[in-house]
Design a protein that fits this description.
This protein is α+β, with helices and mostly antiparallel strands and 181 residues long. It has one domain: Homing endonucleases (Endonuclease I-creI, Roll). It is built from seven helices and four strands, in the order αββαβαβαααα. The protein has helices spanning 21-34, 67-76, 86-89, 104-114, 122-134, 146-162, 170-180, and strands at residues 35-41, 55-63, 79-82, 98-103. The longest helix has 17 residues, at 146-162. The protein is globular. The chain starts with 20 loop residues before the first helix and ends with a helix.
C-alpha cells in the first residue's frame, strides 16, 4: 500500500489553518533566528526496522517570552512546552524558556510555505522537505530498500553538515560555493 497522507502539505492550508504571506514571512524569520530544523530518529516504534526508516522531520522555535511560541501554535498548530524543569532554575539567574514544535507533515507544510522567505535556513528546509518526500516510501511490514535507507541517512548527514559549528567550516563553505557556481 502506498503512503497516503490525509493532509497534503504542499498546500496553503493545513488542518483548517491558512496563514497569509505576511504570516509566512514572519514565521520564516522566527525559524531563521530562533528555530531549528531537525531530522530526529523515532523512538518506541513497533515497525522500527532500521535507523533510517525511523527518521522524522521536526521544527522547533525557542524563546524566553511565551508570546512567540503561543503565536506560532495559534497560527500553525503544534505544541508549546516549558523547556526546563523547575529544578533547573533553582539558584540560577535564568529566564524560563518555552519551545514550540511541530513534526512530520505539519513541519513539511511550514517549511514548504516559508521557503521563499528564508534567509538562513533555506538549505536546511530543502533537506527537510526532501526527507518528508521520501516518506512516500513506507515499510508496511517489509524492509525499506537500501536506496531509501541510504537516501534518508544522507539527508540527515547533509543537515548535520549545514548545522556544523566550530572554526573549521571550510568543507561546508567549499561545497556551498561549488553548488552555486
Amino acid at each position: 500500500m502506498a503512503y497516503q497522507d490525509k493532509r497534503d502539505w504542499k498546500q496553503p492550508s493545513f488542518d483548517g489553518l491558512c496563514p497569509d504571506a505576511i504570516h509566512w514571512a514572519r514565521v520564516a524569520a522566527f525559524i531563521d533566528g530562533e528555530g531549528s530544523v531537525l531530522i530526529n530518529p523515532r523512538r518506541h516504534r513497533k515497525d522500527y526496522a532500521t535507523e533510517a526508516s525511523g527518521f522524522y522531520l521536526k521544527i522547533t522555535v525557542a524563546n524566553t517570552d511565551v508570546r512567540l511560541p503561543m503565536f506560532l501554535k495559534e497560527t500553525l498548530g503544534g505544541t508549546v512546552k516549558d523547556s526546563n524543569t523547575a529544578a533547573y532554575y533553582v539558584g540560577k539567574n535564568y529566564k524560563r524558556c518555552y519551545n514550540w514544535s511541530v513534526s512530520s507533515s505539519r513541519a513539511a507544510w511550514i517549511l514548504f510555505n516559508c521557503l521563499p522567505y528564508f534567509i538562513i535556513k533555506r538549505e536546511q528546509a530543502e533537506i527537510g522537505i526532501q526527507l518528508q518526500e521520501s516518506m512516500k516510501t513506507v515499510m508496511n511490514g517489509r524492509s525499506l530498500s537500501t536506496e531509501t535507507v541510504e537516501h534518508r541517512r544522507s539527508l540527515k548527514k547533509q543537515l548535520l553538515i549545514l548545522k556544523a559549528r566550530g572554526l573549521n567550516l571550510e568543507p561546508v563553505q567549499k561545497e556551498r560555493i561549488e553548488s552555486v557556481a
